[in-house]
Design a protein that fits this description.
Elements: H1 13-26, E1 31-40, E2 45-50, E3 53-56, E4 59-62, E5 66-70, E6 75-76, E7 79-80, E8 90-95, H2 101-106, E9 123-127, E10 144-147, E11 153-157, E12 163-167, E13 170-171, H3 172-187, H4 195-208
Antiparallel strand pairs: 1-2, 1-8, 2-5, 3-4, 6-7, 8-9, 10-11, 11-12, 12-13
Helix pairs in contact: 3-4
């Protein structure tokens, strides 16, 4: 978005000349925060509203919604970590130094010739969160967590390589431990019928399954 301090507001030649690079810099888009309006999982693109506004003659002007913004998911070696963005998610918007048209359409080189530079039309979105309202207070501090934002469900791994699958306080390994104990106790002389215990374990496994 263009700056609101133009060269026409300067009173003398020195101010006028000093304002030229200032105005140029005000027109350069580098990185901004955006809010996802919609996401297409088939194309990995999103409609994003940049959180950019400016005042012109007392009127607040908001940057336009950006259409078909490529979303940068971690991807390499035939693998991808895909995150299905939702309306309201925050992203980092990075604006390319040249037009992304060719690079996005067929993967060819970006042209370094004069053309669009740092344009809102050439944005890449990286999923992220910045605002305090998006801070996550319940993530585990002693292990990596790949899962829900409340920290209660997902894959968790410690520095020593130990890991577990967690869902709402229950874990895969805890279920396996209980299953093994139930089987062990069933083999002991005089053990009571473990059918109810086995059914309870199956129910817990069912709740852990993603599908």
């Amino acid at each position: 978005m263009a700056g609101y301090q133009g060269t026409s507001t300067r009173r003398d030649t020195q101010e006028y000349l000093a304002a030229i690079p200032e105005t140029e810099r005000a027109d350069i888009n580098t990185t901004a925060v955006g809010i996802v309006q919609s996401y297409d999982a088939k194309t990995q693109t999103a409609v994003v509203q940049p959180k950019l506004t400016m005042q012109i003659d007392g009127e607040t002007i908001r940057a336009p919604e950006l259409q078909s913004v490529p979303v940068a998911h971690p991807r390499a070696g035939g693998l991808i970590m895909h995150k299905p963005l939702k309306k309201g998610d925050e992203v980092n918007l990075h604006f390319a130094q040249r037009s992304l048209d060719d690079a996005v359409q067929d993967g060819s080189d970006q042209s370094a010739n004069r053309g669009r530079m740092h344009s809102l039309s050439d944005a890449l979105a990286v999923p992220a969160a910045h605002s305090k309202a998006k801070q996550l207070a319940n993530l585990p501090a002693d292990r990596a967590h790949l899962g829900s934002e409340d920290g209660k469900s997902g894959l968790q791994m410690k520095e020593d390589g130990s890991f577990d699958l967690v869902r709402n306080g229950d874990t895969v390994f805890r279920i396996l431990e209980d299953l093994t104990k139930a089987f062990r106790d069933h083999l002991q002389p005089g053990a009571h019928d473990k059918i109810a215990d086995a059914n309870a374990i199956l129910t817990r496994i069912g709740k852990m399954k993603a599908s």
